[in-house]
Amino acid sequence: MSHNLSRCIIRSSPRKGVQMAYKFPSDEWIKALRDMLNASESYQRSAKDWEGDFLFIAEPDDAYPETAYLHLQLYHGSCPGAAMMDLDDLPETEYTINAPFTTWRKVIDGKLDPIQGMMTGQLKLKGNLMKIMRYPKAAQEIVACCAKIPTEW
What is the 3-state secondary structure (H, E, C) of 45-97? Predict the structure, then answer.
């Protein structure tokens, strides 16, 4: 696993020792998620039939001043690619999910279930919600992998 550490922060705590934390949102953070998904047997099982890329858009709010675009390629239980993108370079994706930065933090921290967030409009989905709802375990595994990434907010 190699990461460009330009947006990586080193944290130290008495219990955990030195730990790298990835700034959210960043290219390093989304690539760390890719690596977590590819290492997760439970994600691979739950998403073995899944096909469809995501574009996650973190919108500005009081906690984060700009829009960020995170692209995640997902195919049959693997994640072949992930990148933070510029607006001019955005690929076509099957799904786009928009939410303010603070809402994404709730999802990553495990305080908001992503499917519930889509159903209640806290996460704005462009794409087939019924297809996503057929894979709730895969969505939970993605969030579980997000929660394992040491994140600097």
Answer: HHCCCCECCEEEEEECECCECCCEEEEEEEECCEEEEEEEECHHHCCCCCEEE
Rg (CA), the chain: 15
Place of tokens 């019924």: 130
CA distance linking residue 52 with residue 13, whole number of Å: 39
CATH class of 25-152: alpha beta
- The pLDDT of 2-27, averaged and rounded, is 62
d(CA 43, CA 135): 11
pLDDT in tens, 33-83: 999 999 999 999 999 999 999 999 999 999 999 999 999 999 999 999 999
Q: Where are the domains of the chain?
A: 25-152
Biggest CA-to-CA distance, the chain: 46
Q: Using an 8 Å Cβ cutoff, are 112 and 146 in contact?
A: no
What is the distance between the alpha carbons of residues 15 and 68, in angstroms, rounded to a whole number? Answer: 33
In degrees and rounded to multiples of 5, residue 139 shows phi and psi of: -60, -40
CA 59, distance to chain mean position in Å, is 14
